[in-house]
Known about the structure:
Helix content is 26%, strand content 36%. It is of the alpha+beta class. It has one domain (7-63): ATPase, nucleotide binding domain (Nucleotidyltransferase, domain 5). Strand 2 and strand 3 (30-37) form a beta hairpin.
Amino acid sequence: xxxxxxIAWLGLDAHSKNCVLAHLDxxxxxxxxxxxxxxxxxxxxxxxxxxxxxxxxMLEESNLARWISQLLKRVSxxxx
Length: 80
């Protein structure tokens, strides 16, 4: 996906050791998914690498949800 004016639909399943991030299009088709360690730098790297001007993130309620939300809002308060 090279369209930087698009909207990205993201789903994140976060666990204490690993995360799974999925990127879907407007029709709900999966574009890509990634598995990576639960680490702030990794999370930021993967989310920021998705080429879209608007990113909608679905995050399940968990012990990590608030931390992840605050982390991502700090780097992109108007984009996520």
